[in-house]
Design goal:
Length: about 240
């Protein structure tokens, strides 16, 4: 039976300052989509409100617009998927093997959606994989489990660092410091010494990538967990060492 991956994407088109556009960082979706497609997995796009997904303008320019993202832009069927995303309520958690939270600064504004948190908790507690790349981990910061603990508490994880925010020139635009908030929630946050280099971290069924450069590596790690790699075995890649 094929695996089912649900990609979480944003509906937000700008920062609090509406003169600064943002949206989905396209390659963070396309790199993972390609890896999962190679395995024959079923894939679904979900956003907090459903419907259209704006694209981060900087992700559509050199050097960020790579062949994977360009291929998506040139394919009408793929672009249609970004106009017709489902809502969290449209998804039966029992059918989901892995959630993959994509990034772009936009997610800092709408990935706190309570329906997304409910879906994430349901997938996790059913033994599924929860993954994020770059700012996607903002969707995990407030997810709590049945015992009231944060999903990321006590678990190794990564995501876009504050240093990278500063180097990207948006530290004064973002609504909060995601790295610091992850640590406050008990996440064992880690990052590369060299910014904007690939890093993917696996802790049981939690798989996280640091930045856009980490998307492909993060997807590969998700596949390893789902296929019963060293990070976890059993139904939906459930790890023995952590529930």
């Amino acid at each position: 039976m094929t695996k089912h991956i649900v990609h979480i994407v944003t509906n937000t088109a700008h920062y609090a300052d509406a003169s600064h556009a943002t949206g989905l960082w396209l390659s963070e979706l396309t790199h993972a989509w390609h890896e999962f497609a190679e395995k024959g997995y079923t894939q679904t796009l979900v956003s907090p409100k459903g419907g259209a997904v704006p694209l981060e303008p900087r992700s559509l320019k050199w050097p960020n617009l790579d062949s994977s993202a360009r291929k998506w832009l040139d394919d009408p069927a793929s672009m249609t998927l970004l106009q017709t995303t489902k809502t969290p309520g449209d998804v039966d958690p029992a059918t989901v093997d892995a959630l993959y939270f994509t990034g772009g600064h936009a997610v800092m504004y709408d990935f706190s959606d309570p329906d997304l948190a409910q879906l994430t908790r349901a997938v996790w507690e059913a033994g599924g994989v929860v993954a994020s790349v770059c700012h996607g981990y903002c969707g995990l910061l407030d997810v709590t489990l049945a015992d009231g603990s944060y999903l990321i508490a006590g678990r190794r994880m990564t995501g876009f660092s504050w240093c990278e925010e500063e180097l990207a020139g948006v530290a004064k635009l973002v609504p909060y410091n995601a790295e610091e908030r992850a640590k406050e929630r008990g996440g064992k946050y880690e990052k590369n010494l060299v910014p904007f280099t690939s890093r993917a971290v696996v802790d049981g069924r939690l798989v996280t990538g640091q930045n856009p450069q980490s998307a492909r590596a993060t997807a590969v790690k998700v596949i390893e967990v789902l296929e019963g790699g060293k990070a976890g075995k059993g139904p939906k890649g459930e790890a023995k060492e952590k529930a």
